[in-house]
From TrEMBL:
Organism: Parabacteroides acidifaciens
Pfam families: Poly_export (PF02563), SLBB_2 (PF22461)
Occurrences of domain Polysaccharide export protein N-terminal (ranges): 39-139
Transmembrane segments: 241-261
Domain SLBB: 144-223
GO molecular function: polysaccharide transmembrane transporter activity; porin activity
Entry annotated with the keyword Repeat: no
Record localization: Cell outer membrane
Protein name per UniProt: Polysaccharide biosynthesis/export family protein
Family: Belongs to the BexD/CtrA/VexA family.
Gene Ontology annotations for the cellular component aspect, listed alphabetically: cell outer membrane; pore complex
């Protein structure tokens, strides 16, 4: 009887180490209450972005000089058949924030949104009497974010649209592991030659007010490990003799207690 009670106490002791308050997200959000979205999210073009710019009109031959050719990338073979994927070549935004667009020449695009660049190209085509009814489509070809640290599936992820939130990025990476610190999720962002690191507490609704809640291209999300994970790492690498000795001491005390109560 005493042996069962002792084992039960040990189970409760070890399972109670992680409180629900440490792992639950958005704990202070009021249910059923609508919240205003304070930010109007816009993806801004930066240097090193790769842009797809397609021009169309009623007379397709007029748009041909403004469009990059399609290229085929070899992916491998299956049963002797060549597999490939087609994609359009893109315009790389140089260090000065410029692209070299056919006929229109050099254009400064850094700091613009996709729609602003679309309108600018349309205006130039019409003003130059090149195309009367242009349809311009601008897309990002290298919009990606990276998630690392204590998540289930760390890695880099290509984003097909223009909008991704911090929570969506963590979902793509399989969510945080039980060892991830919910109050120390960092977003590393490089902009205008400067690097900023902003930490977030996923347990608080203040997350929605962060300037990094909506991620930008090439952002890096890093989830710090908690003390339990750090301790495991130290033990596995045999770097902490004190931890080993403490563990052995606790184990010896527990065994002694169980033996005493079972008599």
């Amino acid at each position: 009887m005493y042996l069962k009670e002792a084992l039960l106490c040990l189970v409760v002791l070890f399972t109670a180490c992680t409180s629900p308050k440490e792992v639950l997200y958005l704990q202070d959000v009021e249910p059923y209450k609508q919240q205003e979205i304070e930010q109007k999210y816009k993806v801004i073009i930066h240097s090193d972005d790769l842009l797809s710019i397609m021009v169309n009109c009623k007379e397709p031959e007029l748009a041909l000089p403004f469009n990059m050719p399609m290229v085929t990338y070899q992916l491998g073979t299956t049963g002797g058949v060549l597999n490939g994927q087609q994609r359009v070549l893109g315009y790389l935004v140089d260090a000065n924030g410029d692209i070299d667009f056919p006929i229109l020449g050099k254009m400064h695009v850094e700091g613009l949104t996709r729609m602003q660049l679309t309108d600018q190209i349309k205006e130039k085509l019409i003003e130059g009497d090149l195309i009367k009814d242009p349809i311009v489509t601008v897309q990002f070809l290298n919009y990606k974010i990276s998630v690392m640290g204590e998540v289930a599936r760390p890695g880099s992820f290509n984003i097909s649209g223009d909008r991704i939130t911090l929570l969506e990025a963590l979902s793509m990476a399989g969510d945080l592991t039980i060892y991830g610190k919910r109050d120390r999720v960092a977003v590393i962002r490089e902009k205008d030659g400067k690097r900023t690191i902003l930490y977030h507490d996923l347990r608080s609704a203040d997350l929605f007010k962060s300037p990094c809640y909506y991620l930008q291209q090439n952002d890096i999300v890093y989830v710090e490990p908690n003390k339990a994970k750090a301790g495991q790492s130290g033990i596995n690498q045999n770097n902490s003799v004190g931890v080993w000795l403490s563990g052995i001491s606790v184990l010896a005390s527990v065994i002694s207690l169980i033996v005493t109560l079972s008599k």
